[in-house]
Every structure is written in C-alpha cells, then in structure tokens.
C-alpha cells in the first residue's frame, strides 16, 4: 500500500471504513461451516443482535445498501417467516448466550406495517435471550414511513433510539440526491418521534451534495439543532457503482471499485470542517469523523458491548455476523436485479441451511489485528495499548509499525496508554481506513464483481 505521507496529498475522501473487512472481500465458504462450531469457542455473554429489513418506499440515488424498493407484499410476508426460521436456527446453534445490544435496520424497517413490526418483536422475544427494555435498542426509519402507531409499537417493545436519515433540509439538495422528500414530512416525522418519547433521536445529514454550499449545509445543521437531537451524524457523499448517482457518473467515466486514486477536488472537507465546528460550538462531543453526541444525550447504564471484541449476530438477507475468526452473511448486491436474485435465494432456503455459514471471510491473525486497530482508532477515545496487548500479546506499534506515521505526521497523539487521533486525524479518517487495509483484502475488494 502507498505511504501515508503520499496518501495525504490526495483528497481526503477515499473510502468509508465502517466495517473491516468490507463485504466485497467475502466469498463462498466451501464446505459450509456449522454455526455451532463457529460460535463454540467464542464469548457469547455480550452479543449484538442485528435484524435487517431490506425494503424501502424508494431507492435513494446515493444508496448502496442491500435494499429493494416497493417489493411484492407476499414477498415481505415470506421474508418475515424466513427471518424467524433463521433466528430460531441461529439461537439453537448459539446455545447459551446473551444479547446486550439490538438494532433493527435496513432498508427501512418502518416500511413494515404495524402488525408486521409486532411480528418481528415477537419472534425476537420467542427465540433470543434478550430483554429489549433493559439494553440499548435502536431502529432506523425514514420520514415518509413514520406514524404514531408504528412508533408506539416500537417504544412498547423496548426501542429507545430512533435514527432517521434526513440528508438535507433543503428540497433542492434532496432532489439532487434523487430522494423524493418534502421538508414538511420530515418535520412531522420528528415531531411524532418526540411525542412518542424515545430517549435518543439521531438525525443523519449528508455533505457534498451537488449545489450544496457551506451556508446551505450549516442551514440544515441549524434546522436539525432546532429539534435538539441526542445524536447527529454527518456523512460525506460517496457516489458508488450501480447506485442511481453512480450510474449517472459511470456514463462520464467515473471511479469504480476499491482503488486509492486522486479524485476531483471538491468542497467536502470545507463542509465537514464547518459542520464539525458548528456542532462543537453547540456543545456536541465528536465521537468519530461522522458521529456527534449532545450533552443532554442519556448515559447508557447497560451491559458493556465492545465492537472490537464482542460478536455480532445478523439475521436477515444482507445482515452480517462476526465471530473472532470468521465473518459471514448472505451475498451482496446493489443493482435491483442482483438484490432481487439474492433475496429470492434467501426465501428459498430451508431452515436447516441457516445453521451453517456458506458465504464470508476467515480472518487470519494479521486481519484480526487490523480490524481491532481500525475499529478502535477511528473512534474516540482511540486505541488503548493495554487492551490491544491483552488481546494480542504485543504492542500495537510493534505489530503495525506504520501506526508510528500517524504521530510523526501530526495526525495522532500517544501518551503511552492511548493512541488517539487528533482533529486533523479524524478529518482524514476516510484516508486512514484504506491505508490500514491489508494488500490481500484490498485485492479481494478490487476483484469483486458487484451486481
């Protein structure tokens, strides 16, 4: 991989490292591995349960998630049945376990109607060792799918965090994102969420939209702040292959695949810095390049979950599961045809097949170390030397000497206990993630044929 000093000469937005390795590094597992064997040697007393609902009212132009817009109603019903089959088979394979975090994502889970939402919560209660009322439990919504009855069902089930993608309060900017959204619908949805009494409201905004300026971005942030959300995420726009915006860009010879390269200079860094400063002035704490937390956000008195160390169990087509040595999921696609084919394959499976992992990636010792470093370093407080040493038996600076470049180039500070990115380092998080990606994973990502 290139030297960090050389990468810093490129524009800062190279790739978003929200998970490592990325799903484009996954491949078929032959022969399939029984889940009971995969989880047998893992700690199962502090797991994260994630359910994926891959349905939406419409597909936004920037979206590369595993999602299908306006599915046939019968397919939705069949999907919920399959989710229960998968959850039951997975819980049996886990044997003794405990979930301490829960999220219902997508897609748009609130695309489901009231009775379907009740069905989802009922299956979780039946098959998983989990108490949603006693742990952090979140759901993703979109403005047009929010109504009082759905929110009531979610709150009564134990959901305490609602995350809603606004992207922008400017109707011209959401049109540029190929997102049919009206501000009055957004305002009404926020009001309904507040009325329902959820302790945590998160709002997502995007910067880098065509026609957006610093002034218009700050106006959207100020509109969001008027609702005093407990959390705000600021996402840079990435135009990815096979998304609506990606198809437009591809006609003009745009970037494809995972490759570090110069991109046209844009205003995203200036927009990020302006947005960050506005939120810090408003009293928010920066947790990562993207996440900002309000001073009035509730303190979570809940069982500890550590994303670097504890496992995740994903249920549903498109959901990922993480053990220490193997990550697995269903296949990945973006184009509607590819998503529909993968979904049909999921719907045709028998329950016994859900007791095995047949698609994913095994992490050797080096990849396990890299994942731990990426997951720790790109959020605050940062990478603890003692925690790394306890897990891997050596110091992180010895295992990955390239980390010393962060200090030498003024992107991080190290007091002997904690290696932590400073403000400049956080601003370059989307360069640092790709920089820490191994050559082998980068090659697998480049070789992946996205459908």
What's a quick, concise take on this entry?
The protein has 451 residues and is of the alpha/beta class. Helix content is 38%, strand content 19%. The chain has a nine-stranded mixed β-sheet. Strands 1-15-14-13 form a four-stranded antiparallel β-sheet. A three-stranded antiparallel β-sheet has the order 16-18-17.
Task: Describe the protein.
With 451 residues, the protein is of the alpha/beta class. It has two domains: 19-293, Alpha-Beta Horseshoe (pyruvate-formate lyase- activating enzyme); 365-445, Arc Repressor Mutant, subunit A (Orthogonal Bundle). Helices cover 38% and strands 19% of the residues. The strands form four sheets. A nine-stranded mixed beta sheet has the order 10-11-9-8-7-6-5-2-12. Helix 3 packs parallel to helix 4 (114-127). The longest helix is centred in the N-terminal third of the chain and has 22 residues, at 73-94. It is globular and about 55 Å long. The two termini are 27 Å apart. 41% of the residues are buried. Mean pLDDT is 92; it is low at 256-261.
